[in-house]
Amino acid sequence: MKPRLNTLVPAAAFALAFSGVAQAQMIAPTPYLSFADSPFASDPTTVLETFEDGALNVPGVTASASWFASSPSPFSDSVDGDDGAVDGVTTSGYAFYSASSQSSVTFTFDAQVLGALPTKAGLVWTDVGNVTSGSAGFGEVTFTARDSNGNIIGTTGPTSVGDGTANGSAAEDRFFGVIHAGGISSITMTASNSTDWEVDHLQYAAPVPEPESIALFAIGGLLLAARVARRDRRHG
Ligand SMILES: [Ca+2]
Ligand SMILES: [Ca+2]
Ligand SMILES: [Ca+2]
């Protein structure tokens, strides 16, 4: 029997309308000295990568090539609190470094591993050193989030960042984030004038969907399809 395409299309339209209800909320850059400064700190499902074990290894996320966790050094610029003290000292922690070659970093989330795409995601910009234009130690960064189809759902910036020094410093550090109920497949930070910069505190939350909301969603789609099928029988 031929599938009744005309009954399936309205159900798909319903699903699209439903998922489109929630717009992405971009979180303006905010000062950040420890995880307590995160807008996601009060959400117990938030997963935090501090890079303090020298690797990106929290579940369900991969980074674009070449970036690596940089060891503590005078040029490493971790989130301040990662060494156990919010004291202005940032060089005894790990950050995630552009390898002197990358102007952009993308973190891609795996819905299979996480159970669902995250609905919250963010990271902290911590430093810029050498630049390709402008003044050393000052950068321009843009933060972008994408949905499950890879479409851009929001952009923050370009935002001016930096304090003029490649050495570790805390007051310049900024959190960038996004909230999107429909799911976030990736976040990207791009520096328009540098391949010598660092980020830290990648974080995301992928709450398990509530069973009743899934059931309601499915029932809604089925009811609509059934109504259209009845109408088709009457008019067909
Ligand atoms: Ca510190
Ligand atoms: Ca760190
Ligand atoms: Ca810094």
Describe this protein's structure:
- The protein is 19% helix and 31% strand.
- The chain contains 3 helices and 12 strands, in the order αββββββαββββββα.
- The protein has helices at residues 5-19, 111-114, 211-235, and strands at residues 25-31, 47-49, 61-63, 68-70, 95-97, 104-109, 120-128, 139-146, 152-161, 174-179, 186-191, 197-205.
- The strands form 2 sheets. Strands 1, 2, 4, 5, 7, 10 and 12 form a 7-stranded antiparallel beta sheet that branches.
- Mean pLDDT is 87; it is low at 5-17.
- The site of one calcium ion has 6 residues, from loops.
Tags for this model:
single chain; 236 residues; 7-stranded antiparallel beta sheet; 12 strands; Jelly Rolls; 5-stranded antiparallel beta sheet; 3 helices; binds calcium ion; 31% strand; alpha+beta; globular
Outline the fold blueprint.
Blueprint: H1 5-19, E1 25-31, E2 47-49, E3 61-63, E4 68-70, E5 95-97, E6 104-109, H2 111-114, E7 120-128, E8 139-146, E9 152-161, E10 174-179, E11 186-191, E12 197-205, H3 211-235
Helix pairs in contact: 1-3
The chain binds calcium ion (3 copies).
SSE series? HEEEEEEHEEEEEEH
The radius of gyration is: 22 Å
Q: Any idea what the CATH architecture is?
A: Sandwich
Question: Structural class given helices, strands, pairing?
Answer: alpha+beta
The CATH class designation is Mainly Beta
Biggest sheet, in brief?
A: 7 strands, antiparallel
**End-to-end distance:** 16 Å
Quaternary status: single chain
Overall, the morphology is: globular
Ligands: calcium ion
